[in-house]
């Protein structure tokens, strides 16, 4: 994992968080949030591009990627939004531009609406935000997590690879797929993979989705046109609920827009940050 080391640590109530920053310190800040079952690694290209003009903060949420994973860990959306709020204070970021993917969107939305986190601008990329969410497979695993935790390691690894692969429309490069599933491969990772699904309760978005009309910051809702995990119709509905939101579709991309159409997504985000995030 030397190409994405996340050298810094932060001790949160949900365990040690690994994080890093790219770009010149003191520049207008941008924070990137990943989703499940991914890590900040999916943002590597976008982060490096944005770091030419901004200080970019990346982090692996507790229970994901390089961050701590342990039995009994609270990795719910409620816990993650509290950790994110704590991290913003730790980084001394008053109003960063925030860019999120998948359930990172729910984390950032909860932090903003429930914990008072302030943003200069907000970009929501194929995010978990509106009910209902969760594929039939995701719900099945959540209902029987203790059974899936006992799968033989070879079957578990095959299941995770197939699941992660389904997030891409054109298909993932084998080396990228290897890197995305790596944190879930050993016994600690296997337990953590099913733990985070078991705690993914829709109640955490139900608590805030009727408040999206309160969001006043410039917002980009960006969606892969071929997303099979969360259809683009959800993105349009989300954008319609946020007064300051603009909706943009990226053709040819599935749920993992960062991997499917990296140039198109990066261009859209750089333009949005340039127009609204300073720099």
TrEMBL record:
Ranges where the AB hydrolase-1 domain occurs: 29-260
UniProt entry keywords in alphabetical sequence: Hydrolase
Listed GO MF terms: hydrolase activity
Gene3D superfamilies hit by this protein: alpha/beta hydrolase (3.40.50.1820)
Designated name of the protein: Alpha/beta hydrolase
One Pfam family per UniProt: Abhydrolase_1
Matching InterPro entries: AB_hydrolase_1 (IPR000073), AB_hydrolase_fold (IPR029058), Carboxylesterase_BioH (IPR050228)
